[in-house]
Amino acid sequence: MPPITRSRFIGASLAALYLVAPNASHAKDMTEPPAAPGTVAYNVWLGRTFSDVLLNERSQEKRVKILERIVAEDYVQHNPLVPQGRKGLIDFIPVIYQSMPDSTFILHDVFATTERVVTRWTWKGTVTGAPLLGIAANGQKLEFDVIDVWSVKDGKLQEHWDQFDWPRAFVQLGVKGLPQPFYDIAARPYSR
User: Fold this and answer.
1) What pTM was computed for the model?
2) What strand order describes the sheet that includes 104-112?
3) Are the C-beta atoms of 154 and 72 separated by less than 8 Å?
4) Which fold has domain 6-122+147-165?
5) Where are the domains of the chain?
6) Which terminus of the chain has a lower count of CB atoms within 10 Å, N or C?
7) Alpha helices of 54-179 — where are they, by DSSP H?
8) Per-residue model confidence as pLDDT tens digits over 140-178
């Protein structure tokens, strides 16, 4: 992989921004990619398909079809809460809906290069089902932000890292005894 230089990063970022902005209002259905694998446009499509279409899909059968198309079978997961491989995602995503049946995922941004894709989105829902992270459901309203980063190989999402706004989520879940900065952060208005 060639090193990412400032001009290469800026050029790739501007191309990705150009692709995202005109499509800001789109249907949440799986579409065909707008370009060939290995292009910025294709990788933007991968990120949008995962973070907007897949996560909002209620049918497990449809989710599996999407995952089989966009995620490598030997997917490397760096989030320790999610099992490894494509099968790990297939088994994990229903857990979200078991805890928060009204979950919605709001995509804000997709940035891509020819080798990476990044999405920034908000997860909203109400914990009314199974415990979430071991915390019993009592109608907690959650709204917190997430950033996903993937490497792309052979036209599929290959490796994944993420960052959740856990301070806000834990406070909204009602977790007691957290460090004061968690409560301070959660009390701040959203800045999206």
Assistant:
1) 0.83
2) 71-77, 156-164, 140-153, 116-127, 104-112
3) yes
4) Nuclear Transport Factor 2; Chain: A, (3.10.450)
5) 6-122+147-165
6) N
7) 60-70, 85-99, 166-173
8) 999 999 999 999 999 999 999 999 998 999 999 999 999
